[in-house]
Amino acid sequence: MVTMGDVRARGWCVSGAREFGKRYNLDWRTFLREGLPCEVMLATGDDLARQLVEDVRNRENCSG
User: Fold this and answer.
1) Are 42 and 8 in contact (CB under 8 A)?
2) Which of 8, 17, 21, 61 could, after both became Cys, cross-link 26 (CB 3.0–4.6 A)?
3) Residue 64 pLDDT greater than 60, yes or no
4) Are the C-beta atoms of 3 and 35 separated by less than 8 Å?
């Protein structure tokens, strides 16, 4: 799952994340509450989404 914490860890702004969500018709409230699956983010085809998913996958690999 990609969360707002992942966005913040990259140093990206919340308003930019909200605009990103609007651009790709992502459920902003769900994203804030629960995050969104990596597959949903990757399906946007956006490079920023790919970077976030990479971060998540790298973190999960490092945590065990």
Assistant:
1) no
2) 21
3) no
4) yes
